[in-house]
Each structure stands twice: as structure tokens, then as C-alpha cells.
Amino acid sequence: MLTAIIVEDLEDAMQLLKKDVEIHHPEIKIINTAKSVVEAAKVLRNNQPDILFLDIMLGDGTGFDVLEIFPELKSKIIFVTASDEYAIKAFKFAAIDYVLKPYAQEELSNAIERAKQQIQPNKERLDILKQTLSSPEKKPDKISLHTLDKISIVNLDDIIRCESDSNNTMFYLKEGKKVFVTKTLKYFSDLLKPFGFLRVHQSHLVNLQYINAFIKTDGGYLMLTNGKSVPVSVRKKAEVIDVLDQMHK
Fold it and tell me: Whole-prediction pTM value?
């Protein structure tokens, strides 16, 4: 039997989650609940559960305040967040799992299964999450990338380009480093577009700061500052020219 504590400031949301866990996950026993940072601190001082369901926004602070009070917390954390595009983006940048309210049963079950298997996100990934949540319009400094065997934390400014490899993505970084990530190029294109990255081809996403020139011959391609070239699709040519014109005004 696994133990769990729910930290959620909305009574209805807490009762719904409690009921869903009790009905669909009898292997989990909810031993306590809390509605605030202060309550959570009191509860966790007495008992650290196997799984902590942690809402991000609490009446007297945030879920991060709870984690800072207990830096040595051994519980597996399932973050619960309201349906907010900035929150979703923040979790994706940090490569940290979350459950989106209102959630489907399958999403909750998947999150619980992942929580049982995963190791805790480290401080650096939690810092990325906190930074991106607190300044949603600001360009994040770092991104966490899920590889096959680990999570790599990379400076956004070190990413030169990304290339599609079936349903995976190869990141090309400064100093010739590469990171192979098990997510699609579209996933990263949607995530990075607001921060100076441009999808120039079905298979290529480029960091604008590494573009040296647009060469119009041979169907059109980009010369990058590292001497490499990247093709530009016919469909993307006008957008690429427009973006580069805006950059040089």
C-alpha cells in the first residue's frame, strides 16, 4: 500500500481528486490533506508520504514554498495545475510531469504510474519551472531535454538548431555537442517559437541568432555562423525572408 497526501486549496478540487484516487487506485491510501503552505508544512512534518499531490497556486503561496521548506523530501511529486498555457509551457521547459485540471481519469492514472517509477526532479529543473512560471513572457535561460537515459539541462542560447529524426529530435549545440531527444520537432517548434527560433523546413528548426545569411540559389538555404547550411522549404521562404528583414531593420 502506497501513502499519499493532497495539497490543494480548492475544497471541490481536493474532494474530487481524493475520491478519484480512492475509487480508481485502491493501492494508494490518502493519509492527509492540506489547503495551504502552512497546513502542508504541518502535515509533512509529521508524515512524508510516498506520493505528494501538489497544487502550484495555493492561497498563502505556491507549491514551491512547500518544497523549499522540505528540501530533503523523498515523496514522489505529482504537480497539479489549472489549465493555463503559461503553466503548461513552464512544465514543458522543465521536463516535469503534471496533471492538468480538469483532468481525465487516464491522465491521472498515467501520472501516478510515472510517479511510481520516476526519480525526483532535481533543484535545477525545479528552478527552471519556477522561473518560467513566474516570468511567462520572459525568455527562459535553460530548457530540460529528455534523452533516452537521462535529462540534460541546456542553455537556450547554446542551441544552434534542431533537426527532425522521425518522431525524435536531434539538438545541435555550440562546440559541436548533440542531444537526441525523444519528442517531435513540432513539440519543440511550438515551445521555442516565441523565443527566437524559426521552423524553416519540415525537418529543421533554427535559432535566429546563429543565422549568417539566406542564400537564394539552389532552392534557398541558410548559412549558419558555424559554417553549416540548412535548407529552407518553398513554403517557408517568404516567412524566413520577412523575419530576417525585420531582424536587420
Answer: 0.75
